[in-house]
Design a protein that fits this description.
It comes from Alteromonas aquimaris. The protein is 77% helix and 0% strand. With 398 residues, the protein is mainly α.
Length: 398
């Protein structure tokens, strides 16, 4: 049996404050009309994460170094390295601001020190955890809190007496309009997290499959499907809960009333419980985002991917620092998180193109190169995100 648990580490990064906030906003504003985007994202995530994990297992390389080492031209390799550093390094810094903002929102509800103060404190805590390298125990605790919150959301949804017929009607009437495009991109960005592809490949590169690659790949695929499927279920439940509480009502969803979704079950303790869960989700993602950036940047620059390496530490420190600065700059909390998710949706095509190139050209993959189905799904993901992004950009300019 495979002892590696990277699929659950990916799930811990997958269920962050961006997932909770974006799903809540989508359910409150559009009901189940945008569930199509979530379903598409879940299937696409399973396929893309399978590619990343397969790359790491077979080649012993992460996505960044796998890409640069699979290209013959030195000029192209350098260009790819620059693109990876820019896309993942800068993109994760934006994503980190959303993670810290979400966690700060949770703690501010418990102790009102202000979002800026909590963002700084959380950034220091995330940095301290990564610096010591002893973050796994804390990460496991945070994952447990996230799973607990998911259970409470499910119970809350059932107690809130949702209208399942209305949910089905809206699900059967998918919506895609210019006003909803930002939300669609945010849902895709919070589900198909670009940095998770780099993180998964790097984690699996350190796993030794005992020369039984087909079995290791099959077990890793099953684990990833379960973990990603669970993350998708949480997102769906949060959307349904927000829809039941806010859709079609006069009450607007904001940072101050997110916890009202839990009041049918938890009463006066809803705010406290939601705050702890949001903090747990935020801090977990605040650790994994800079870690993934360090793996990607160091791999692209052909530097050691070790926690104690000076360059490795410099990268995640820079990501956390930028995240703290942006999170404490006074942006509206929900807007900052939503913008970070939309930015990841725009970043996704770049990363997906990188992954497809590697999975079809890497000389060490052999029989484990991409098959037609994986290439087809990857191509559809890239095409859809590009079309949505270009359509949105065109209407902003014109």
């Amino acid at each position: 049996m495979m002892k590696d648990k990277s699929g659950y580490i990916i799930a811990a990064a997958f269920i962050g404050p961006g997932t909770i906030t974006t799903a809540s906003l989508a359910g409150a504003s559009y009901g189940f009309h945008l569930v199509w985007a979530l379903v598409f994202s879940i299937i696409a995530t399973m396929v893309l994460q399978d590619m990343a994990a397969r790359l790491g297992l077979v080649t012993g390389q992460g996505l960044a170094d796998g890409l640069t080492k699979s290209l013959a031209s030195p000029v192209v390799r350098k260009l790819m390295a620059v693109l990876i550093v820019a896309a993942i390094g800068i993109g994760n810094a934006a994503y980190e601001s959303g993670n810290l903002t979400g966690a700060a929102m949770g703690l501010h509800q418990l102790i009102p020190l202000g979002l800026s103060s909590w963002s700084v404190i959380l950034g220091l805590l995330a940095g301290a955890l990564l610096y010591t390298g002893r973050y796994k125990l804390i990460e496991s605790t945070l994952v447990g809190l996230v799973f607990l919150m998911a259970l409470v959301f499910l119970i809350t949804l059932l107690f809130a007496n949702p209208d399942f017929n209305l949910m089905w009607q809206q699900f059967s009437s998918p919506l895609l309009s210019l006003p909803s495009l930002t939300m669609v991109l945010a849902l895709i960005g919070t589900t198909i997290v670009p940095y998770n592809l780099f993180l998964h490949a790097s984690l699996m590169a350190q796993f030794k499959p005992n020369n039984n690659l087909p079995k290791a790949i099959a077990e890793c695929r099953q684990q990833s499907i379960r973990a990603i499927g669970f993350g998708g279920l949480i997102t769906l439940v949060v959307m349904a809960t927000a829809m039941t509480a806010f859709f079609g009502s006069d009450s607007a969803l904001s940072a101050t009333n997110l916890s009202k979704q839990l009041e049918p079950v938890l009463g006066e303790y809803a705010q406290w419980f939601f705050a702890i869960g949001l903090f747990a989700a935020g801090l977990t993602s605040a650790i994994t985002a800079p870690l993934a950036a360090a793996y990607a940047v160091c791999g692209a620059l052909n530097r050691p991917v070790e926690l104690n390496n000076r360059v490795f530490r410099s990268v995640w420190m820079a990501v956390i620092t930028v995240g703290v600065i942006v999170a404490s700059a006074g942006f509206k909390p929900l807007a900052a998180i939503l913008i970070a998710q939309a930015a990841n949706g725009l970043l996704l095509p770049i990363v997906a193109i990188f992954l497809l190139v590697v999975m079809n050209t890497h000389p060490s993959l052999g029989e484990f190169r991409n098959k037609t189905f994986s290439n087809l799904v990857g191509g559809i993901v890239i095409l859809l995100i590009l079309l949505l992004a270009l359509y949105k950009l065109a209407h902003l300019i014109l």
